[in-house]
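hey so i finaly got around to running the thing on DUF732 domain-containing protein from Mycobacterium spongiae. pasting the sequence first so u can double check i didnt mess up the copy paste, my clipboard has been acting weird all day
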Amino acid sequence: MVNRLFMAMAVAWIGLLIPLATAQADTIDDNFLATLRSEGITDHISTSHAIQAGHVVCVKLDNGLSPGDVVRDVLLSSSMPAYHSGFFVGASIDAYCPRHKAEIPTG
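ok and heres what it spat out for the 3d tokens, dont ask me to read them lol
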């Protein structure tokens, strides 16, 4: 009986936390897209494609590529000019993987 009650409480808590995680992800995604739009960067496929590409930036960094290497990848795989490619990578790091901020060259 106690185990069932505990299990029911755990499920209820998880149910309450899921919308919070989704809301936070939506806020991060919305801020990321707004940052891109502020520089005139739009994804001609979809906003979800831009978000997915932002996460791919983090995966590449997690796998050992430097931010410069990732900028080159974005430049070669998109129609963005060099400045926008660099801005996209920086915005992706800022939004989705701030743990890589220290790797961004300054100056």
